[in-house]
Amino acid sequence: MIQWIKEFLIGKPLKNEAIQGEKYKVMWGLPVLASDSISSVGYAGEEILITLVPVIGALSFMYLTYISLAIIALLIILTVSYSQTISEYTNGGGAYIVASDNLGHTAGVTAGTALSIDYILTVAVSISSGISQLTSAFPSLTKYHIIICIAALLFLMLGNLRGIRESSRIFSIPVYVFIFGSLIMIIWGIIKFKAGMVHPAEPMQQLKETGAVSVFLILKAFSSGCTALTGVEAVSNAVPNFKEPAAKHANKTLWILSLLVLLIFGGISVLANIYHIIPVEGKTVLNQIAFYVFGNNFMFYFYTATSILILVMAANTAYSGFPLLMSIMGRDGYVPRQFSMRGDRLSYSTGIIILSAIAGILIIVFNGDVTLLLPLYAIGAFLSFTLSQFGMFIRWKTIKGKWWRLKAFINGFGALTTAVAVLIIAFEKFAAGAWIIIIVTPILVLMFLRIKKHYVALAKQLEIKAADLKDYNILDNRYRNHVIVPIESINQSSLRALRFAKTISDNVVAFNISIDKEHANKLTEKYAMLDTDIPLIVKYSPFRKVVSPLLKFIESAEYDYKKGDMITVVLPQFIVKSWWQNIMHNNTSYFIKRDLLKHKHIVVAMMPLQLKDDNYVLRSSGPHS
Amino acid sequence: MIQWIKEFLIGKPLKNEAIQGEKYKVMWGLPVLASDSISSVGYAGEEILITLVPVIGALSFMYLTYISLAIIALLIILTVSYSQTISEYTNGGGAYIVASDNLGHTAGVTAGTALSIDYILTVAVSISSGISQLTSAFPSLTKYHIIICIAALLFLMLGNLRGIRESSRIFSIPVYVFIFGSLIMIIWGIIKFKAGMVHPAEPMQQLKETGAVSVFLILKAFSSGCTALTGVEAVSNAVPNFKEPAAKHANKTLWILSLLVLLIFGGISVLANIYHIIPVEGKTVLNQIAFYVFGNNFMFYFYTATSILILVMAANTAYSGFPLLMSIMGRDGYVPRQFSMRGDRLSYSTGIIILSAIAGILIIVFNGDVTLLLPLYAIGAFLSFTLSQFGMFIRWKTIKGKWWRLKAFINGFGALTTAVAVLIIAFEKFAAGAWIIIIVTPILVLMFLRIKKHYVALAKQLEIKAADLKDYNILDNRYRNHVIVPIESINQSSLRALRFAKTISDNVVAFNISIDKEHANKLTEKYAMLDTDIPLIVKYSPFRKVVSPLLKFIESAEYDYKKGDMITVVLPQFIVKSWWQNIMHNNTSYFIKRDLLKHKHIVVAMMPLQLKDDNYVLRSSGPHS
């Protein structure tokens, strides 16, 4: 039944060999990896204008052009840089790997942590903002805001648990629709303008300059616009998800992605400029442009609808990046190894579920409020950019090779620019919530390093050198195995346990922990009637404890246990027909097991007894064996 | 640490022998068992007036006197009846036992179920109403209503987990204070009236008659007033909690309790009558009487405060009754046996915790609203009264004996009256919520009977007749024990498991489930270097499943397993130093264990490996053995 529901939701299990079929080429890979970038492109121009317009008024449009050009330059630098990274790290070269490889483990884990925090925030922010736009279009849905957010989250989670292949199929269509819609809008908008069919609105006179152009203002606007670039790193992380030759497919995807970002971001900046769009409350810049270009008709509503959908779809890039990053960090031992295991559909299900759970908690705690979530966002992505760029810079300086000075310059310049962006974002948004990230990141880094330390220590404890193997005779170290069978009464279950005990050792003791003396006497009497040489030990437990009298007995002189010997405690387990019967059984047994296993010389053997169906037993006449 | 917190909250564990010291005589038993009755006495008169005044106006006071006399008559009948029950059932004679004994198991379980539902509702209702009165006195607390309710619930829970002795000490003082305060108020109120110091208020003219006196109205008022009697059964349930001679102490307590109910209920009816108190919104009848008698001074506020406290304390009677009832039903197998086990402080901790949990859920679901909870209340108590009375009636008819006709008449009359009360309450309150109880009660009864059936079937499956014991040679049935050791790699842990396997059987197989073929080849190579005769079996698992390839191997011709033999699977368990390391280990092992134990021929032996402290391992040089 549970199996059936599971298969209905996520599909039938896939074989290991099916992994190649799960991978994508450019066509299906692009929309998955591009949705984050493309959706942020939609509002990057707006972010720049929001920063500039209140201060320098009409001058903003001139600076919008300069800043857009600078961002496009940075985009080209990042693209070249990540293209180099993909060629260098053909097994997936996210910030985590590049930084680990060139700057050491701590830098790598820091980059990985920063990126994973940003992935989680991407999911929370993009779902919240998409659903916010939906509920502001349909105000009657406002009171269900959180529920709709969680439903969208579950939908994304299930889609991704179904595997890479299916999720790329499910979630690609809206991305392509939005891309083509945007390109048509940009071309049509420019044609309309050139043809003199539309004249720009004239609200320019109303704009007042309240301050002067300053380096700080420009940097602030630049860093706001940098959100257009988050998501560019996604391709380099996802190289293992591409069909072979993976590096080639990934590089092609990266260049197409960059070209699309350039065209859409640049095009929207141009349109904002020629139509003199000013950000106003409740209407996005994208919305206003679409209205000017298409007019109040179907195309306008259709494009607006896809622009809402693409916001939610942006979360899908994080669903591609986070589980893969965690699986790589899990393989290296910085997070629990479960993250590296593929689920039934060959997706990294642990990562997908954890991502959904944390993003869901964030949405609930921040009440799905984008304004509260946004200040936490983007620091992580840019910190990981900086570390990755700086890692590549060091790499070129170390390995040298053809054109190394140019390559090092490109990556060094990228590192510098993104580092400045990190500082500006952290400073500007500190009080609004960025402090949370500044506190949480190092704590997580320390936690991940501590986990690694545990795995290293574990490996060292378990290690046997190959040279030692030859001399390692398993039989050498043979010790005595004692068996203790705790019994409460004489019944089919306890006798079955005693019988099993006899097959594994000649040193068996039946042990009763008595709380009620009368009951103990009856037991002793009945036990005496058995034809067996196994002694019965009865110990009175004044505090109704079970394990401590047993341990006390083992350590007592009464018991001929020698250091180095093993003791096996046989515990019967009732295996029941219906789930509800479980609450009636094996509870004490659970605690006994837990406490006994704290002792290295004690093995706990659990012996199942399959209970028959109650009705069947009661219908038949005699006792069963 | 956890142990320390536990001891701080509920005290040090008590020995079995301390049980006598935990029991009470009359002095400490009375307040525990009386708090429910005494608190309901406070508002029973009010309930009668609320029913009568809107219909028959000034005539109400005459009928209040008649109905009060009828309830006092019923009180005397119930007291005589329960006194007879206590003498007949000296080991505790609640409705469950009396009904089971004389009317059969289904009737007994029904009485027990009805009573336990009512105990749960007593806790929810009395805490909600006490805290409601508190928050209406201090309106700034209103928004914390639910939190204060839960805090009061936790306080009662902890007090009762500390054991009978301590809870009776903690919670007795306010009960005695309220009893003495009420008696003083009644005496002083009558004296003041007789001395002509106060004249009754004259609002009588304002009262309008809107209907005629009808049998139905009188019965309705009577059944509302019957709440004064809930709690009378508590003493008969709690006989085992009394010091020896328990029946004598219990009987004394019952009579004192009845006398107090008679005096306080009767006295308040008299005062309501002579002062012509009319129930008004926001002021209880008790409150108005206290104001008339004491005036606006300290005594008035002090008495009002204790009347609030006693409402909360009423829950304490349920804390005495519910766990004891569940322990008796658990002993008989109608509820899981855990309910019959005494905790560290010799209290029935499972019952106390379950009672608190369900009452807490009810308070949260019903938002602590007494108006919503009250309609669910009292049906259970009166149903159990009816069954218990009817049980005693049948008993006298069967066993006869001295005065049996009189005794049977008393119990029969009690059964009839309470049965009428049940029907009236169920009919009157059906739509308001009583339907929930009418649906839930039979479901619970069926559930409890099903649990009993399971325990009976279990006992039958496990049973070995005493006559068969002599012929039961444990060694007779000796079978072969095979051992399978699943290994993932060659390390200290897996070799330790193989070594253990060798001590318990000569038929050992090392078993590897391979997901990655390269890894499997390495393992095989390394294993070949070991000096051992244990064969290594490697099976490829295309769907990454662990248990099914193992089971398939066992059933295959490749493995020389014969039906009837046992297979022991040895699973290493890592025992870690810090709790957080647990999330990294033994997860797979848990699922393997669960799935393997479904097979009756498979024993799972868990072999603990104590991991050393990470820092210690990393500081030392070589690998450890």
Automatic annotation (TrEMBL), chains A, B:
Its main location: membrane. One of its GO terms (cellular component) is membrane. The keyword Repeat does not apply. Gene3D superfamilies: Amino acid/polyamine transporter I. This is Amino acid/polyamine/organocation transporter (APC superfamily). GO terms for molecular function: transmembrane transporter activity. InterPro entries: AA/rel_permease1, APC_K+_Transporter. It comes from the Bacteria. It is a multi-pass membrane protein.
